[in-house]
């Protein structure tokens, strides 16, 4: 089993996590665990209305309440030119509402007091007079010509945020005109929420003597946050230190900048004291970055044998009141064009309309690369619709349409270049391992007895590693990532990276990469992230980008050190540099294995005995701009039984075969797969954030936004194939989001498969028992 | 109100507001920040501690209700610098990722093993069903608790093994 870390050549081994000892001892340092001398506490006042004009705000009673130091309103911020802030998607968002509110729970005022309780008490005393306005919750209605215009601040007087498209429209239409088979399906991916266990929060600590702002924040992207902060506040970047301490889960929820952050900073600037703000669970669920909320229509043109020709997709994307989606600015919703998935479509045409509604803003990449989850779900769902239409087994239909391994690098019809993959092999392994043929026989027998059993397949292709500067940026900043490695005289290493983990195990996996490259053990390497004063600039951890980007930077940075080490080794071995070989453990003279020096010998020499003219020391920095994205894939199979009496779906088996390229730490990869599958399961069966027609959010905490427990969650079976990325320094592709991207379709396909004898072609998520129960009753199935 | 509480073997006398929740008393007044707040609605269990030996969610207990009681938090699991077998098992079985739910999971697991030293998988899942985790998918947490149960059983069986070796087993 795990835990021991001392061995050399650690890559590919289940090294025990270096971060665990502090967590299992209760010694983690999460945001709310930090307390600074003289610290004040902030609480936000939020709107009860989804759309209303603010007639007046009376803060006088709150200001007189015990312990209260300051109350901030939108008008106060406007006087400082801080009433609005930029979003990651080049929109602007109100920090505190001025004029009107645009969604329920929108931030209206901030109260700062000596204690948390005093701030909460005083927030109750802020009196806001509202005049309700017509509410728009349906994104289709929002696009109608008589819909109220929600964003009066925008030049464009409509609720359309953007229209985006990819692929060749004419060529696609042509194929559809002549196709023997066309299937069409409307599919909704509900509004869901990443819901990390630790809510968001920050402590702003402005030192009026030095002019320096230290900002502790639950951040997945501390450097990007510092830049945004600098742009918003006018404080110079080198006077802002962003520290992201241990983060209790992110899943995309801790990428955006939230109004509460800005308010806490303003309060600290005004008061000259540290100000802490920690969200409640309700604030997290109702006002911070939600995900998905796509209304999609897909059509596939195919041959009679099910071979696909073209794909046509139209989508309405509900982004809420402000476009705070975490999309690279070059193409809003761009990764939705991965919608052709694992299949060799000749042509495709994809359109997405982003729409404003009276809902909380967001559209974050929840364990997903900027909309790849919606895309993977749609294509995997609609491939099943096609399979049923042409009467071909869904596994066989997929096999007929896969991009063949010899076609890589594969140029997709919407313009992506897939790096590598072997889809047939992965599906074959999954089918064999689950005993597919036997399961189909069992299903046939059960069907004959009137029982409802379903088998669902999802053979998805992912796209991760955001990335390459030719395609990706956030607010214009290229999405490279970075590593800085220092080898100290005794061969002990501190490595600092521009990403920031939230449970992914970076302290272990990046130590493994670096130790492998340098011939050290992971014990010799400490990985630090999350402090902008010490770490090199990087774009953060989300969208499974850390291993493809920062992992590449770590390997290449270590290799840069190894190049210098080789020169020192030649000097110590008294041979020419060309005669030195590195075998992964030490450097030796060619043909003389007995004459070996280790990295520890070299490290000491780097500070005591370098060749004449060489700069002492042994450290390097590397900014890695990946040449391409990476394309992990997987074959997932779900087996479900449906209770005819209750409509309850039991997931009897679930097998995930993933291919994420080179595996750094199998234990950690498996853990990531388990976690992602659980979130995918939750999305398929339990989660949705609905709104009533007045814009009231109907899932505001974990009593009505369901998170699965150990009793709900199925057991996971896992396996893998390995198709290394040809362009990544160690061949790794990234895995964290794959199970969340690939699994919802497998679950839904299984349920639809179980109900197929009734003529059911599709069910929208979440598949609550009552939804299935209703379908059963509609079809006369009563028990 | 004045309260007297024994926490992890140490007695504290404090003056607390009647409305103060036990979790904030532990975290803010005693500096025991291992116990976390995750949800405010008693849903997530990140704040689970033992109150007189029983697992409770400390966000649903007032500090004053703990007056005269014995409280054990995650910081109390370690004895004389030695990790509890449950803690090592979580490490070995990769029973955590972000670590935020971990203290609550450990305390629920500990409470379960106190009352049921040989739980089945189903009993373990039921035992931690009040604790939510967003990262691990529960399988490894279940494995960890099961592994700890085996280790604890082995450890408690050791003395009797010695007895057996001397030829006077009472089994």
TrEMBL record, chain A:
<dbReference type="InterPro" id="IPR012780">
    <property type="entry name" value="CO_Mo_DH_lsu"/>
</dbReference>
<dbReference type="InterPro" id="IPR016208">
    <property type="entry name" value="Ald_Oxase/xanthine_DH-like"/>
</dbReference>
<dbReference type="InterPro" id="IPR046867">
    <property type="entry name" value="AldOxase/xan_DH_MoCoBD2"/>
</dbReference>
<dbReference type="Pfam" id="PF02738">
    <property type="entry name" value="MoCoBD_1"/>
</dbReference>
<dbReference type="InterPro" id="IPR008274">
    <property type="entry name" value="AldOxase/xan_DH_MoCoBD1"/>
</dbReference>
<dbReference type="GO" id="GO:0043885">
    <property type="term" value="F:anaerobic carbon-monoxide dehydrogenase activity"/>
</dbReference>
<feature type="region of interest" description="Disordered">
    <location>
        <begin position="718"/>
        <end position="737"/>
    </location>
</feature>
<keyword id="KW-0500">Molybdenum</keyword>
<dbReference type="InterPro" id="IPR036856">
    <property type="entry name" value="Ald_Oxase/Xan_DH_a/b_sf"/>
</dbReference>
<dbReference type="InterPro" id="IPR000674">
    <property type="entry name" value="Ald_Oxase/Xan_DH_a/b"/>
</dbReference>
<dbReference type="Pfam" id="PF01315">
    <property type="entry name" value="Ald_Xan_dh_C"/>
</dbReference>
<protein>
    <submittedName>
        <fullName>Carbon-monoxide dehydrogenase large subunit</fullName>
        <ecNumber>1.2.7.4</ecNumber>
    </submittedName>
</protein>
<dbReference type="InterPro" id="IPR037165">
    <property type="entry name" value="AldOxase/xan_DH_Mopterin-bd_sf"/>
</dbReference>
<keyword id="KW-0560">Oxidoreductase</keyword>
<dbReference type="Pfam" id="PF20256">
    <property type="entry name" value="MoCoBD_2"/>
</dbReference>
<feature type="domain" description="Aldehyde oxidase/xanthine dehydrogenase a/b hammerhead">
    <location>
        <begin position="25"/>
        <end position="134"/>
    </location>
</feature>
UniProtKB/TrEMBL annotation, chain B:
<keyword id="KW-0479">Metal-binding</keyword>
<dbReference type="Pfam" id="PF01799">
    <property type="entry name" value="Fer2_2"/>
</dbReference>
<dbReference type="InterPro" id="IPR012675">
    <property type="entry name" value="Beta-grasp_dom_sf"/>
</dbReference>
<dbReference type="InterPro" id="IPR051452">
    <property type="entry name" value="Diverse_Oxidoreductases"/>
</dbReference>
<keyword id="KW-0408">Iron</keyword>
<dbReference type="InterPro" id="IPR036010">
    <property type="entry name" value="2Fe-2S_ferredoxin-like_sf"/>
</dbReference>
<keyword id="KW-0411">Iron-sulfur</keyword>
<protein>
    <submittedName>
        <fullName>(2Fe-2S)-binding protein</fullName>
    </submittedName>
</protein>
<feature type="domain" description="2Fe-2S ferredoxin-type">
    <location>
        <begin position="1"/>
        <end position="77"/>
    </location>
</feature>
<dbReference type="InterPro" id="IPR002888">
    <property type="entry name" value="2Fe-2S-bd"/>
</dbReference>
<dbReference type="Pfam" id="PF00111">
    <property type="entry name" value="Fer2"/>
</dbReference>
<keyword id="KW-0560">Oxidoreductase</keyword>
<keyword id="KW-0001">2Fe-2S</keyword>
<dbReference type="InterPro" id="IPR001041">
    <property type="entry name" value="2Fe-2S_ferredoxin-type"/>
</dbReference>
<dbReference type="InterPro" id="IPR036884">
    <property type="entry name" value="2Fe-2S-bd_dom_sf"/>
</dbReference>
